[in-house]
Amino acid sequence: MMVPPCDRDEWAPRPHAFRRAAVDAVLRVRLGAEWVAPSLARDRLTTWLTEHRWPSDQLDDVVFAVSEAVSNSVEHGYGIEARSTARPDHAPVEIDAEVVPAPDGGRQIVLAVRDRGTWRPPVPGPSDRGRGLPLIRSCMAEVVLRPTAAGTTLVIRTPSVPQAAPRS
């Protein structure tokens, strides 16, 4: 007896067809030092954090902090002015992020934003500039600035968030 195709087992949904791929615990982004870089960093980081089911209130803070750090690399590290369309050769902005266990049993992200530009200390005195690092510090658990002759690295540790529930 022949069974109609719609009744065959091979047409039944398979549980494995709906499994999601594992999300990488590490994110590596390499961008050119140009004014579109902060936007690209925000998009890639938002997608990655969403895949990790990062709480939305914390997600916004992390994305803001990284966007500000990338903007600082472009403007201050490489000296590219805000309205410039310059695209210097060999001027990367690198972002490395990793989800790590937090001491309280939650999870955190450790991020490094790195450039190969020249560190320029803030100019003393009144200015409408120089608010980026204090803003980053206000929403992150830890911020370490490492300027060297080879470039600048900003290491950021997020506040702890609860472990994500397992995916079904």
From TrEMBL:
The keyword Kinase applies. Keywords: ATP-binding, Kinase, Nucleotide-binding, Serine/threonine-protein kinase, Transferase. The lineage of its organism: Bacteria, Bacillati, Actinomycetota, Actinomycetes, Pseudonocardiales. It comes from the Bacteria. Residues 40-157 form the Histidine kinase/HSP90-like ATPase domain. It comes from Pseudonocardia xinjiangensis. This is ATP-binding protein. Signal peptide: none annotated. Coiled coil: none annotated.
